[in-house]
Amino acid sequence: MGAIYRREMGAFFTSGIAYVFLAVFYFFSGYFFYDEVLSSGYTDTSPLFQNMFRIVLFLIPILTMRLLSEEKKNRTDQGLLTAPVGLGEIVVGKYLAALTIYIIAESIIFVYAVILGYLGDVVWATLLGNYFAMLLLGAAFIAVGLFISSLTENQMTAAVFSMAVLFFLYVFGSAADKFSKKWMYDLITELSFYDRYIEFTQGVFNLTSVLFYLSTAFLFNFFTVRVLEKRRWS
Each residue of 77-96: b (16+ CB within 10 Å) or e? Predict the structure, then answer.
């Protein structure tokens, strides 16, 4: 797994994807930090994180689009699948590499915290809660993107399809109000990625939401392993 992880980390930077991802993430987070936090005169970073949810929807597919689709396109997947390493290790190595780039990007918030520290008192509990929420969101969405990348050999197809799926997961919760039956409303709300994320940005720590995001990440990584397993024996 370590070899796969190092290989993917190197590929992120040699291909330039890491630089593009980090630059765009820093640009939008910097903009929202100035517009929603500094301009307001408050040290609450919740508005920044609420806006970054939408940006992450379109950025993560860029991060995950080549992870497995490129292997298939270049016909290097067969060598990878027949290597003396488990399929789970291949998936986890690639997944952790993408998650590492995401964490590097997200950690810019601590630079913003230092800036806010000069202007007033930083509410660290709220800031860390927001940071943790975005980390969980990224962990789940990266797993979804990796799974979709395993289904095609075209990077652009993987990116566009991932964006569509993540956008659907974003708007899914808004459909709850259209159902009059309480059980249907409750079900959709429970499965809403955005509603669970907003809970964190509002200072509510819900263990169920933590398990929800972690379970999503585990489930889609499991699906990816099954796709590779099918390809290995085809």
Answer: beebbeeeeebebbbbbbbb
Residue with tokens 């889609």: 220
Inter-residue contact 150 to 70 (CB < 8 Å): no
Contacts of 209 (CB under 8 A, 6+ apart): 136, 196, 197, 199, 200
- Confirm if 140 and 216 have CB atoms less than 8 A apart: yes
For 55-110, write each residue's pLDDT tens digit. Answer: 998 999 999 998 888 777 766 666 666 666 778 888 999 999 999 999 999 999 99
Q: Which residue has the tokens 């919740």?
A: 46
| Residue 16 DSSP label | S
Task: Give 122's pLDDT tier (boundaries 50, 70, 90).
Answer: confident
CA gap 196, 189 in Å, rounded: 8
Whether 184 has a pLDDT exceeding 60, the answer reads no
Q: What is the pTM of this model?
A: 0.90
